[in-house]
Amino acid sequence: MATLKELLAQQAELAKQIEEVRRNEVSQAIQQVQEIVQEYGLSLEEVFPGFKSSKPARATSGARTTKSEIRFRNPQNPSIGWSGKGRKPLWIVEGLAAGKSLQDFAVSGN
């Protein structure tokens, strides 16, 4: 029969494994959702009806906004890009945490 100390060590190891698997699965799920949203050109309101943004609605002045140029691409899925503006996507955050630099994700010519 295992001792309490051994069981607690096993529990701690299992907790680490659970968190790692959870992180990987969440990352994959987010990537799948991003791909679907991008493929179909969905808006936040279409994906989450009734979602209330914490930002106040902007008045439209008739001026058109232009989409920012993609400066970084996801190496696992080149159809996903980031302009370098706003919050870093999860794949950038995870890559930086793994020791990569932002230039490792840069689009050629930038």
In a nutshell, what does this entry contain?
This protein is mainly alpha-helical.
Describe the structure.
By secondary structure, the chain is mainly α. It contains three helices and two strands. It has helices at about 5-40, 45, 90-95; strands spanning about 70-75, 80. Strand 1 (about 70-75) and strand 2 form a beta hairpin.
Helices and strands in order:
Elements (H helix, E strand, L loop, with lengths): L3 H37 L3 H4 L24 E2 L7 E2 L7 H8 L13
Antiparallel strand pairs: 1-2
Q: Distance between termini?
A: 62 Å
User: How much β-strand is present in the residues?
Assistant: under 5%
Share of residues in helices = 40-55%
- Helix count from the secondary structure assignment: 3
What overall form do the CA principal axes indicate?
A: elongated
* Mean pLDDT figure: 86
* Secondary-structure element pattern, one letter each: HHEEH
The biggest sheet, with number of strands, parallel, antiparallel or mixed sense and barrel status, is: 2 strands, antiparallel
Radius of gyration using CA atoms only: 20 Å
Secondary-structure class: mainly alpha
Which parts are unreliable, with pLDDT below 50 for 5 consecutive residues or more? none
Q: Can you list the strand order of the major beta sheet?
A: 1-2
The total strand number stands at: 2
